[in-house]
Every structure is written in structure tokens, then in C-alpha cells.
Specification:
The protein is mostly helical. About 50% of the residues lie in helices and about 10% in strands. The longest helix has 14 residues. The protein is globular.
């Protein structure tokens, strides 16, 4: 989905039942506009090294059920 329109990315992730991990502010804007999604995990660009990012994602996976992630944003 790299390079696809943000709405298409959110729709694809929703259809797959997957949260979207992003550093793109446009996904936050779409959330504020009420665009349906299965969850957005937002991180600031370059804030985490890859290993740290993976650990933080694992923490979210362990603490939040997929159905509780729908239409929410988690900030890293």
C-alpha cells in the first residue's frame, strides 16, 4: 500500500482488521473527520529506533484488544 492514498490505506487496513502504524499527520486529520479505521498507531518520525518501535508495538498488542482499537489513536 506504499504510496497509496491515505483513505485507501485506512480502508484496506479496516477491511483486514489491522491498525495502521504511521508518522503521517494526514491520518490524524482523517480520524478527526470521522473516516472509519481499525486504529491508528501514530509515531513521530525518527523518534524510535526500530527495535524500540517493535517493543512499543508489542506492548500495545499485549494491552489492547483489536476490537478496542477500532476508531482510536495510540500515540507512541
Amino acid at each position: 500500500m506504499l504510496g497509496e492514498d491515505d483513505r485507501r490505506q485506512l480502508a484496506f487496513a479496516l477491511a483486514e482488521g489491522r491498525a495502521l502504524v504511521t508518522h503521517d499527520n494526514d491520518h490524524l486529520r482523517l480520524h478527526a473527520q470521522g473516516v472509519p479505521h481499525a486504529g491508528v498507531i501514530y509515531r513521530h518520525r525518527h523518534k524510535y529506533r526500530m527495535g524500540d518501535l517493535i517493543r512499543r508495538l508489542e506492548e500495545i498488542w499485549e494491552r489492547i484488544e483489536p476490537e478496542d482499537m477500532i476508531a482510536t489513536i495510540e500515540y507512541l
